[in-house]
Each structure stands twice: as structure tokens, then as C-alpha cells.
Amino acid sequence: MSSHNKETNSQNGSVTFQSFPVLKDLPKLSLPALAPVQVNQRTLTLHRNVAGDFGFNVRRTQFPDFRGRLRAVVFAEPTEVRCGPPRPSDIRAGLLPGDQLVKMNGRSVESLGREELLAIIQNSGDQVELTVRAMPELAELCDRTQRGVRDTGDSLMLPPVSNTYLDENITEDERYWLMHKNGYTMARMIETQSDGKVHVMVAGAEMVVDVTDVDKANPSNMDRVEDLARLRYINETSAVHVLRHRYGSGLLYTNAGALSIICMANEQEPLLCNKLVALFKGCRRQQMPPHIYASAQQAYRKMQMSGRSQCLILTGVTGSGKSTQLRNVCHYLCEIAGWTKSLSYGKISAALGVVEAFGNCATRLSKNATRFAQMFSLSFDAAASLRFASIRTFLLDSSHVVKQANGEANFHVFYYLLEGAEPELVQSLRLDSITKPFRSPLIREEDKNAALLGWSRLKEALSTLGISAAHARAIFSLLAAIGHLCCAGATQSPAQKAQFVRASSAQHAAALLSVGTDQLASAVFRGKMSSGGQSGPGNVMNRFSLSNRGQNGQEALEAFVAHLYNELFYAVVALLNRGLGATNLATTTSITIIDFPGGNFNAAWSEESQRTSGLADLTYNYLNERIAELFYDTSFTEPIDLYDREQVEVDIEKPTLCPHQITRLIDQKQQLLNCVDIDLRSEERRGLLHILDEEALFPGATDDSFFERIFVHLGESRLIRRGCRPREFVLGHCLGGSPTVYSVNGWVKAAQPNVSEGSVLTLLHSSRDAAINELFSPFGMTRSESATLNIRRATQAAKLDATGLPTACGFFSNISMQTECIISFARHAGGVQFVHCMQPQPPSEDDGRSTGSEMLLDVPFVRSQLRSLLIIDATRASSRGYPERLSFKDFRRRFQCLVKSSSSLDDVLDDRAAAGRILEDTGVFPHTYRLGLSQVLLRSDVLADLENRRELCLSGLIVSFQRACRKHLSAKWLARRRTLDSAIRCIQRSGKCYIKVREWSWWRLYTKVTPLLAAARCFRFSCLRFSTS
Fold first, then answer.
1. Known binder of ligand: residue 599?
2. Annotated binding residue at 318?
3. β partners of residue 887
4. What is the pTM (predicted TM-score) of this model?
5. For domain 41-133, which architecture applies?
6. Has 317 been labeled as part of a binding site?
């Protein structure tokens, strides 16, 4: 990048400085130094309890740092943890989960083994002295109990650290961040010029830069602030500075307003334990530090208070750790709401493992990339207890089975089967006959070990979910059949005349499917069974048969295999839902986590920037843009509309850029289908996928004609341009900040209907294997499974568009309907929260992990991820707005206890006036709330302050109520005890009397004669009845 120098004379003398119109190569500028994390250490003295131990466990493990180097760490964790945030007594005299042991009885434990540590504990007397320090997340949690809600200081209580920019003694008004290609640097503002330039001093040199190249800096005590909305100056550079400091301190989570949390992905993130869950249970948002458990707790608490279903949406590029956060949310909700034992986390983890095995694969950007979208729902009853779970899947990239780009692998389950199957299973499935190109042997030893471990976990998960051995064997047979079909190959002749190249592989596949070889060939190449029953799209296929674009044998085989795997995937999901208890049980609310494939926008930042994207990548990038559109509407459009309806003035403006433009560029439908003017109808603008749908139906269309039509209809848009090579175009994703290159080779063929689309299920239903037939039979399904099946069938058949006209191909309708199902579900949920998963560094080329550079966090890369979703603008809108809303009636009912009750007529009849009086009497500042027409609008910290006051006000009443309850229970226990005592005394007196008379001869006679009296009485009664009859 270029820069030029110029000299300027000031009035006081000649001063030479540099002007950088475009900041690129600045001399000797680096990022600000990170303050070292020095969490306060605690010295505890623990005494032996009645069990003879000290009430804690010692755990020694190898913990990786950010560079991937392992270091020995000793943890001392309590055996029991109370629910809720730690009390001051717990901090002063007790251990917390995640406490790192530094010293034991004054001796450093860094070089001691587990046996030596246990020996020190055993040799201790009645007490032991421990020196510990809390993990960063709990350091924030511990500090929170000692400071107020409005405190925005450094949560780690770090001592003053001498940084490079602090040594310059720059006043707060002159502190600015200067942006450059490597990140940012502290600068001193000298003056602002009238031509859009500013005069700054950086590293001892003065220069003139554009005003857009500087951002206002916050005080240094906000370097690790928990919520970006608390920053005094909310801008991109300050947000990146906070994220960089928190990530360097081991703090992976940062709040970004009321509805968002940022997660900086870390591949070496430790597994979270159950004891940590207890510290978040029952807490409000302001009582918890930023954490994924805090987001789950907030959703659970809102569901309990409002009685409405909640939704958590995980966003981020591919490889950013969304699937890991999905497991963390499920783990937390199972622990806090699973007291009925209806559904354990073990089953949920098993189900997630199975669906990941069938739907995840290794790509060039991630070693465990998700190739489908899912909505994982946890359903609760009226008591907020977890009852069952369900999985709904969308947009599976089934074509990945037959076509993988260079450097990418097939779905995990195939490697699990081929590498880990037992010899008996290998022989019965003929897995040794599956060769290249489908079977690519694993070279690295760690990959083989991972495949073996994945196979054992897959079988264990199927058993845990109650899937029978017959169904599991049917699944494995279908997987092996897919492998044999890929190895069989087909001739390049037209599909109606094509045959298998390797007949033996086709015979193996037919045997595993329990169908005839002729039936299989007819279903694959002619789309009908050997009996003559047609199972294709009917008139649509006849139309394509008249054109010169019919499929050849290999294309028909690949389409059949892709549809076969698609049906297998949905059948496996149906079995998982049965194992998770997704039946017709009555539930009231649910929490749904939406996880979807991340966009490949990070490819431009890695070595993969030269590779082009395909049709599947466009589909997933379009879904990411729709989620960004939803986030935009949730953060800007809906609040502004709410303020307008409530007639409240708030200083919030929509950003100039919005994701709606790129989404309409992709999915805009044609509105003039019924117009009689053909020229006007042909010139109407339509989306890219709609153009592809039309080209797929047009006889004689090719990829070149499709490519030219794109620029006929969309050429005027600045979000799309031609690429450097033929059949390539560039889309400006992420508000134009992530240009992605696409190649249209093979798109028209992929969008066309094929002869095998309807023959797969017909072939599977005709199978002689009862397990396979039952696996794909619609009979015996529950109501929810049947509804899901109907939705999926509808998206794969001929569709009706908005005007009622039939669209035969259905490719665009398939993508549009499934995407709209996800978006509409999130829009109609009772509450939506976003978890933004971010990568600290671009992925490397070898295994999709972050690059191992010495830079802890790639500032430009993180800045681009913040810009892609307008997170900073949304945080600023949340800070300036009023995100907490309560109706006047609910607000009055909840906080009436804070003021004296009034008997005035206005307060009794007018809830709005009563709410205003409550806010005035409690001393809430007028600028922190607004009274609308139907509800109270509050800042987040105001609601937290009112909640704290309410708890303090009701604490006395609750204590009195508890005292009365305990008195009542004690009285009942005492009465029961007195009755028991009387009974015992009576029994004792009777026993003593019996001991005195048991040796008396008359008593013995009495005890022997008494049983005979009953028989004699019965005989006399019988005789009397006989005589009277």
C-alpha cells in the first residue's frame, strides 16, 4: 500500500509530519501491549469434616494454552456446590469449581504429581492450607458479588499495568485509536481540520489522516468490560480492543447488548463440568458473567416468566464452533431442568453425535463442517421441566456424497464404517470390495484412530437411543450399498440406455437393498420399477425427454445415490426423534437452538482465496444472509417500529447498509407472471436462484446462457460483478465486505429434475428386508414425524408459486421453503437471542484450524466479522434504546412493593400513572426510562437495579414466610412425635403385661382355646342356617 510525505510549516515554526490519505504501510506501528492477567489469589484453611476428608477433589491435567502448548495444571474443586452465584462466605473460605491450585501447605504444586499431592493431604492434620486462584470466568463471577450493577470497571481487578500507550500521558479527550493494516495504535489528537482530515501524533511522529481512520478510545479501565454496550465510546476499534484483551485473558465470551453474546472460538476450550452449571442456576442476567451458560439461563428464565417459547440462534462462519455451543446449551438445560429424569444429556449427546456423523464432513475450512441446518428443540411442561427433545433438519448437501472438491472428504459416517467395522460386518457388507474413487484410505494415523473411535461411539449412541439391532443393520447396509453403487459406475450413454460398468458392485448393492439387480437398474437409469410403474415427475420429465439435455448414465447414478442418502439421513433423524421421546406428549413451551452451516466468507482470508465456490456454498451463504437479515430486523427495524407505536422518541437510526439487498438479489421472485406484456415480463428483475430455476426448465439452456442471463437482470447491481475467468461471478456478501467468487459450472444440471427423484422411495418400499421396509415406511410414525415427512415431501415435489401457477422444477422452491421455515419459526418465537461465534484467526490450509501465528488475534479478520452482522451498530442501538419492556400492569404488579400503596383514584384506575409514580418514587433517572402508550421501556441496568431492590424489599417477607412455614412444619413434627411417643409407651406397657402373664397356666389355656372359638362359632352359624332353611 502506498503513502506519501509532505512538509507543512506551522505558525510557531517548521514542523515536518506525514500525511496518510490511505493508511496502509505505517512505519513501526504495532498493536497495544496486553496487560498480563493477574487474578487475585486466595488462601484458604479447610478443616476435616465428619467424613474424614476436606471436601474437595484434586485433578491434575494437561491444559493447552493459546499457542497449543500443553502445561500441567492442578485443579482443586469442591465435592458439593450450592446453586446460584457464590456467596461472600464461599469466596472467602471455600473452593469454587475451576479453582487452580497454586500451593498446598505453603508448597508449590506445579512440579508435584497426583500421588504426592494425595500424600500431602493424608499427612495433614485436622486442617490444610490451600492457595488457589479462580478461572477467568469465575473471577468475574466472584468480583460481581462485591460491586454494583452500574459499575463498569475492569472485572478482573487487575493492578495498574504500564502499557506503551499509557506512558505517553495522553489525556482522555486526546486518546484516539489509529487504524492501519495490522490493527490499531494509540494516537494523540492534535487538531481537526476542515477538509475531513485530522492532525494526530503516533509513536512520536505527527501525521495527517482521514477522520474515518481514527476512533475515539475509552478509558483503560474498560479494556475488559463485560458488555460492549457499557463502553463510553462504542466503535469498532474499541470493541476489537476489548475482545482482544478478554481473549488474551482467557475470557472467551463478551456481551454485545441485551440480545447478543460474542463467543471467540477456541479449539482447546476445556470441557465444562456439572459443578459450573450450579453457579448459573436461577440467576438473572446481571448476576452472571458473559458465558454460553448465561445465555441459556436467560432463555430459560424468560420462558418461565413469560410462558412463551424461546429461540437461540448460533451465527458465525464455518469452523467457528457453533456445534460446540449447541452442545453446551443442551448440557446446561438438561442439568437445570432435568429433575424428572425424562431425558438425560447422555441421550441428547448421543443424538447429536449420530446426526453429526451423518451430516458433517471435513472441508478445507473446517475439519468438522456441518452440511445441513437443524432446529434442535427442548420441550418443557407447565412446571418448566424437560420432557423430550426433537430434531428438524433442512438443506442437507446430499450431493456431497458423490462430489467433493479437492481437499475435502466425504461424510464422517463412511470413514467410520470402512475403518472401524468388525470383520464379520466387513464380510457380510462386502466392504472390502469398495475401492476408489469412493474409498480413499486414511493416511495419517490420527485420522484412523479418530475413525475407530467414531465407529465405537456411533454404535454406542444407537444403542443408547434404543435403536434396534435390525434397524442399525439396515442403516449400515444402506451405507454400504451407497459405496457399492459409487464403485459400480455407469456408462456415458443416455440414462434410458445406460448400464452399470461393474456389474459385481451393482449386484452387491442390490443384495444389500434386498431388491433385484434389474429393479435397481430400472430405478437408477429409467426412474421406474421393472414392473412398469412410473415414479417420476410425469409431464415434466416428458418435457425434458423431448429436449437434448437428458441425463447420461453417470449423472443419473450420482443423482440416485444423492437421493438415497438424503432419504437415509431423514430416516435416521426420525429414529433419533423416537429415541428422544418426541411423541405426542403434552408440553407448553420449548427452547429451540438453530444451528446451520457457516458461510465460507473466511476463505478470502486464508490460503483458499483462489478457490471458487459452488451451488451448495451459495445455498448456505444465502441462509447466512437471511439470518443476518433477521438480526438486522430484530436489532433495528422492530425496535424502531415499537418506539413509533408507543410514541417514544429515541435517538436510533438504521445503518446505511443492510443485508436485504443481497438477499433480494438472490431470492427475488417474479411478480409479473400474469402480465400480458411479454417484453415487460421478460425485463422484470428477478433473483439469481429464480433465474437458475427458469434456466433449468428451459430446453437447450446451458451454463453459459445462465451466466449471461444473470448480468442481463442483475448487471446494474453493485453487489455482483464478473469474475476473472469464464463462468465466474463475484457476490459481495456481508454488506460487500466479503466478496466471494462463484463458478456456475454444472449449476443448470444440478437444478434440473432427474429420473430417480421419485424412484428411491418406491425401490426401498419394495425391499424384501423387513427392517429396510419399516425404516422408510410412513406407517407407524407419530403425528409429528408424519407432519415433518409431509413438509419434506412437499419441498421435493412440484410446487405452486405465489400466483398459483405450477413450477415443475422446484429447485428454487425447495431452498426457499426450507429457508423460510427456519426464519419464520425464529420470527414467531416468544424471544430471540443471538450467539455470535467468531474465529480469532483465519483457518489454515492443512486441517481447517486457525493459523498458528504468533499474533493472538487477527484484528482485521475479527473486524470484518463484526461488520458482517452490524454487531457494533446493534450494540449502539441497544445502548441508546430501551431493550427491556414490561406492560404497565405487569410492571405495577411486580414493583408495587417498592413504594407505599396509594388510595388515589388515578393510581387505582390508571396503570400508566401508577407505573410513572413508582419510577419517580424509586429515584430512577428520567432519561433511563420511557412511558409508552401500553408499556414501560427501560434500560437494562435500570431493570436490574429494580430487581435488586425488589429482592431486598421482599427478603423480609420471604424470611417471615419461611419462619412461619418452619414453625408449622415443626408443630406438625412435634404432634406426630407425641403421637408416636404415646404409641410406643402403650406398646411397652402391653409388652410388660404380657411378660408377666405369659407363664400363667390359665393364660396358656386361653391362648390355645381362643383360636377354636372362631371355628365353633362358624359351625354353630352354619347349623343355624341349615335348620332354618
1. no
2. yes
3. 935
4. 0.85
5. Roll (2.30)
6. yes
